[in-house]
Amino acid sequence: MHEKHVAYRVEADPAWKLQANPNEQVIIGNTVTDARTTRKPMLTQEVTAEVVRSQRQNQAVLQTQANIAQMVQGTHNIVRGSKELQEFTLKKVAALEAKVEQLEKEKRELERRHVEEQQQARQPKPVEEQPAFPEVEPKEKDAF
Predict the structure, then answer these.
(1) Contact 27/36 with Cβ under 8 angstroms?
(2) How far apart are CA 118 and CA 56, in angstroms?
(3) Are 65 and 75 in contact (CB under 8 A)?
(4) Which residues contact 34 (CB under 8 A, 6 or more apart)?
(5) What distances in angstroms separate CA 135 from CA 130, 131, 132, one per listed residue?
């Protein structure tokens, strides 16, 4: 189906121009701009603004990448420092565990000695035989 509408047509010279204009450049193939000076180039302010915006975005992306690289390096340094701290802590913990074990042995030894001393204190001491009457030394007689 085709709707009715007004058709416009451009009137043109009925003949071909076989003589080239010396002021006009003839370009063969695809171009970004129209070679004729009567038309505006396709590169407009909008396209220029888009290129500038794109360049700014690229700069922002590059700056973000640099910031991320710095953060990754910082994180790497933190992880390395944490690993060194962990190794140092493990060595200290092992030394402390050895010290605790030594102190526990000493404590058990002291407790054992204390128990032995208490047992010896509870045992009756052997009684030495003492004479029923103590010996009295003779007194010298008084001279009267």
Answers:
(1) no
(2) 90
(3) no
(4) 40, 41, 42
(5) 10, 8, 9
pLDDT digits (tens, 9 = 90+) for 56-115: 999 999 999 999 999 999 999 999 999 999 999 999 999 999 999 999 999 999 999 999
pTM equals 0.39
Query: Per 3-state DSSP, what percentage of the chain is helix, strand, and coil (rounded to 5)?
Result: 55, 0, 45
DSSP-assigned letter for residue 23:
T
Tokens of 8: 């416009």
68 residue type, one letter: I
Q: How far is CA 127 from CA 10, 116, 117, 135, in A?
A: 149, 21, 19, 19
Residue written as tokens 């700069």? 59
Residue 114 is which amino acid? H
Which tokens hold the place of 128? 């030495």
Q: Distances in Å between the alpha carbon of 123 and those of 111, 112, 118, 128, 143?
A: 19, 17, 9, 15, 53
